[in-house]
Design goal:
It is a single chain. The two termini are 39 Å apart. α2 runs antiparallel to α9 and α14 runs antiparallel to α21. A hairpin with a 2-residue loop joins β6 and β7. The chain has 21 helices and 7 strands. The strands form 2 sheets. It has a 5-stranded antiparallel sheet with strand order 2-1-5-4-3, with no helix packed on it. Strands 6-7 form a two-stranded antiparallel ribbon. By secondary structure, the chain is mainly alpha-helical.
């Protein structure tokens, strides 16, 4: 369209702008054609295609999140294998975030100064090496011994039987056999895992930020949201695949690479079973190495996506009005990129200047009440998610007597997918309904409140600890009196032995056959499976026999309603993800948006993902009623008070969800007050204008 003519003197400015727009359009068309010809002249290979980069980065993020999330799926297995408390295992999981936080700020500084694809590749290689390092304790440690016999299962002597003192062998794990070298070896194993977790966090630092910025720089602006959406989808699918991988690996015996002669007499349902936790790290590390290879061939800078040039040519061939609007929008956006936010001026600062400027910008952002409250609500939600992601499989194992493999299968196939649905639904609601900040805060408040209400029934879904001879009396319960008091006194039972057996008729569990007074055992074939049966048990009525393994729980049937409520709560809480993110973006100045997002993720790591696993682990440890001892120190917990475990684990979830509700309620109140003040100002200004007229 040409410029409008003959509309009177008052249209002179518009005519001038239109003429200038036409000239600018002609110049930009010439420049675009020259750019297009230059780009066509360059050799365009696979590694100069931003779509191929998006594909590679999606695969890499998937593999990286599999390896970083895999420990969460096998945390209870690692505890049993190396004698760790829940507090220690929680701290181990948190060390991933320690390595990440230690270097995340430098990404803002070096982001545009380095070869980003290669830095991503180096980070991925470090992640793979950290995964391999996590497996090292398995290869340098002795084979796992689930009782105090030799790993050779052909031996007839079972030291867990009731034997006279004169013939009873000394326990291999008694304090007499402990030495400084034994304890030093244990500390070395734990130290290796802590180091590996730290390196895992450090290696993951450049992967997501550099990948997102690289895509945003060289993708067409209309395609960039789609590409980033694909990346975020891979981000959410990764943890689900980690739990799925854990479910598969934990079905295999830990020493599958060095099985003892004669095999083993354990099944995954046995509380002494330890799965092949290390195998998942090997598989994930291999995937990360394969996904990292292409990054060493991507250029430091690639040409802008050609799709942008085609679209702009179509736009230039269209109406001048559309072009003028686009020019005005781009002219408005350009100054925003050049405003003096820390993220924009960081490349022009030295490291010392960057460190000096950062605290002032951080304090300026924390003075925004909306930003501060939304981040605090996200801290509460992330604390809840962190504790659940790490310890929910263990909680399900203990509370409902299911295997570690089945617990991971439930989370990977139900809870994680529903959380993805919640995130997508929240984004759709924000986009389709064009929600304002007040409406976003209402959606977040309703989602958090409904999640809180779904938590209440969880306090009552579960069972008390079943009767365990010599242990449940200390829980305040009213167990039946022993039929044969002092029946196991003639036996030389080791207090630290653990080979649980069950008296199915009385539904009483004994920590070892010795504590049940058993003097013999046989192996029977039941439905094609070998079942160990201990006989001549002086503490058991009737035929005096007990079965190997823990007693079946009456709570197993409650696992489905429990996990459904948990998953629905997670899905509802996930709906708040996108609207709360929009509140952060709209709650700070435009020049601070990039840094605000970075600070948001850093605060979530420091205040939620680092302390929450330790808090949840410490709370779980307080519910233990029987600790295994290793060289005089507390090792792994054998039995928990199930009622206390449920009330404290779910209680922590309820506490964090309540904090999120309070924060979103305050955000809503502040936004409404701001809108009220803004409307009053508009009314005052309009009344002043009327008085002047």
């Amino acid at each position: 369209m040409g410029p409008r003519i003959g509309e009177g003197p008052q249209m002179t400015d518009r005519d001038t702008k239109t003429t200038m727009s036409t000239e600018d359009m002609h110049e930009s068309k010439v420049s675009i054609e020259s750019q297009d010809s230059n780009q066509d002249a360059r050799p365009q290979g696979l590694f100069h295609n931003i779509k191929f980069f998006v594909l590679c980065h999606s695969i890499l993020q998937l593999a990286q999140l599999m390896i970083s999330g895999y420990l969460k799926s096998s945390i209870s297995t690692v505890e049993k294998r190396f004698g760790l408390s829940s507090q220690t295992s929680g701290l181990l999981a948190a060390f991933n975030e320690v390595g990440n936080v230690s270097l995340i700020l430098l990404v803002s500084y070096f982001g545009s100064r380095v070869h980003r694809p290669r830095m991503i590749g180096y980070g991925a290689i470090l992640v793979a090496l950290a995964g391999l390092l996590m497996t090292l304790p398995h290869f340098i440690s002795e084979p796992y011994r689930y009782d105090h016999n030799s790993p050779d299962r052909s031996q007839d002597l079972d030291v867990s039987l009731c034997l006279p003192t004169t013939v009873a062998p000394t326990s291999a794990l008694s304090n007499d056999s402990c030495s400084s070298s034994t304890e030093a070896k244990h500390l070395t194993m734990v130290g290796i895992m802590f180091t590996a977790q730290t390196l895992l966090g450090i290696g993951g630092v450049p992967i997501q930020p550099f990948g997102i910025s690289y895509i945003d720089d060289f993708a067409h602006h209309s395609n960039s949201p789609l590409y980033l959406g694909i990346l975020f989808a891979a981000t959410t699918v990764g943890p689900g695949m980690a739990y799925g991988l854990g479910s598969l690996m934990l079905r295999l015996y830990v020493d599958i690479d060095r099985m003892p002669e004669g095999g083993i007499n354990l099944t995954p349902k046995d509380p002494r079973w330890v799965g092949a936790w290390w195998l998942g790290f090997l598989i994930s590390a291999g995937l990360v190495v394969l996904a990292a290879c292409p990054y060493f061939f991507f250029p430091r800078e690639m040409p802008k996506e050609k799709h942008e040039l085609r679209l702009r040519r179509k736009a230039l061939a269209g109406s001048a009005t559309t072009d003028s609007k686009g020019e005005e929008l781009s002219s408005k956006q350009e100054p925003l990129k050049k405003e003096a936010g820390l993220a924009q001026i960081a490349p022009d600062l030295t490291v010392v200047q960057f460190i000096k400027v950062f605290p002032r910008v951080l304090l300026r952002m924390l003075r925004h009440p909306i930003f501060l409250l939304v981040v605090l609500s996200q801290v509460c939600t992330s604390s809840m998610v962190a504790g659940m992601a790490i310890f929910l499989p263990k909680f399900l194992e203990r509370q409902f007597s299911i295997t570690a493999s089945f617990a991971n299968l439930l989370l990977g196939s139900l809870t994680i997918p529903l959380s993805i649905v919640g995130i997508v639904l929240g984004g759709v609601l924000v986009k389709r309904l064009h929600l304002s900040p007040v409406q976003c805060s209402i959606l977040c408040l309703l989602g958090s409140l409904l999640c809180l209400l779904l938590t209440l029934p969880l306090f009552f879904i579960g069972c008390s600890t079943h009767q365990i001879a010599g242990i449940t009396q200390d829980l305040g319960a009213q167990p039946r009196p022993s039929l044969f008091p002092g029946c196991a006194e003639p036996c030389s039972c080791q207090s630290n032995d653990f080979n649980p057996v069950c008296d199915t008729s009385a539904h009483v569990e004994y920590t070892t056959p010795c504590h049940a007074g058993c003097t013999g055992h046989v192996v029977q074939e039941v439905l094609g499976k070998r079942q160990a049966v201990y006989t001549n048990c002086s503490c058991v009525a009737g035929d005096g026999t007990v079965l190997a393994g823990s007693c079946d729980s009456a709570c197993s049937r409650l696992i489905l309603p429990f996990i459904l409520l948990i998953s629905l709560g997670v899905a509802v809480a996930s709906i708040t993800h996108t609207p709360s993110f929009m509140l952060v973006l709209r709650g700070v100045k435009k020049e601070d948006k990039i840094l605000a997002v970075g600070m948001q993720f850093m605060l979530l790591r420091v205040l939620a993902w680092m302390p929450s696993p330790v808090i949840h682990g410490s709370a779980i440890d307080t519910t233990c009623v029987l600790w295994a001892l290793s060289c005089g120190r507390q090792a792994v917990c054998r039995y928990y008070d199930h009622d206390l475990l449920r009330s404290r684990f779910i209680g922590l979830q309820f506490f964090f969800k309540s904090g999120s509700v309070v924060c979103f309620a305050l955000v809503l109140a502040i936004l409404r007050q701001q809108n009220k003040e803004a409307s009053i100002k508009v009314t005052v200004k309009s009344s002043d204008l009327q008085q002047q007229l």
